[in-house]
Amino acid sequence: MDNYNEITVTADQQYSPQQITLDDSLFNKCQRLAHMMASGVCTVPKHLQGNVGDCFAIIGQSLRWGMDPYAVAQKTHLVNGTLGYEAQLVIAVINNRAPIVDRIKFEYFGDWSKVKAKDDKSTDVGVICRATFKGDDEPTELSLTMAQVGTVRNSPLWAADPRQQLAYLAAKRFSRLHCPDVILGVYTPDELADRNNEAPRNVTPKAANAGASALLDRVKPKQATAAAPVIEYYDISELLSTIEQVTDSKQIGPIGKEIGEMLNNPAINIKDDDVDELRQALADQKQSIILADEYNNIMKHIKACESLDDVERMKGLITDKEQDFDAGDIKMLNDTLEIVAEDIGAQG
């Protein structure tokens, strides 16, 4: 899980909420940066483009964490009108700002080969999240099994890479339990979706005079029941990021199935253009994986050449692939083949 550390952190540069709101100079600088950030197209996600207020909030949160606002912005998503932060960002914050002497570590247990579906409920398969707090001799641990995961598993990673997704969830629960002051008020997209899926509860106290209340209740029109929460516009940026991280063609199918299920889910509204973008990204990633496998296979055969005839055959194969591979890859193949040919020639 090396990708936990992609968030840039600036050491020893943190600001309190009081500094940001009460220091006129700092406030004005943040405001100017918010306008600049909101004008971005490729550097900020769609839900922040043209949105100065939310960009300002992102900048304030970034200053409190000592992070690059643009890096933090790329790890946010809009869920049911609420801003959510990716689990990767939460882990980076805990690793760098929580009072721990080392980084969060993960230990898996159980037979993961039997986890075949995103809704798996195994009680003996899970992960242990641990970190040692300053002043403690032993690490603090939190154990989480697949059975303890909530009903909301919207991320395609629950199907494509459940180990990583469970580790993400364990880290979030660990941070909320043991260092809530570091991430107070910050929620991830799946947590927000889970919260919005909770059925509303009637907290109105019962009237003492049931007779009059019962009569009024009979003559009043019945209130419509609350409808299922609807996401006005589904933010596809997290799903696009997931697709970009796929390195195994076997993961393409489950993600494509997840996209199909999203389209059939009445609680998810997704734009036609975004659907086309997702499908194109999935197709492009699949083609990229196929080409990467072909490239590695050709390179393996080049290094296995035993005669100049083998070299000539590989030259023809490389020529055939010039339309598929980029110029850098073709050059690398040709350079390697030339070295192999020289070695064969030197051997006589």
Please characterize this protein's 3D structure:
The chain has 14 helices and five strands. The longest helix has 32 residues, at 272-303. A three-stranded antiparallel β-sheet has the order 3-4-5, covered by helices on one side. A two-stranded antiparallel ribbon has the order 1-2. The chain is mostly helical. It has helices spanning 17-22, 24-38, 52-65, 69-73, 87-97, 157-160, 162-178, 189-196, 210-219, 237-244, 252-263, 272-303, 308-320, 327-346; strands spanning 76-79, 82-85, 105-109, 126-131, 140-145. Residues 1-12, 195-199 and 205-226 have low confidence and may be disordered. Among the domains are: 95-184, no CATH class; 238-346, no CATH class.
List descriptors.
14 helices; three-stranded antiparallel sheet; mainly alpha; disordered N terminus; two-stranded antiparallel sheet; 348 residues
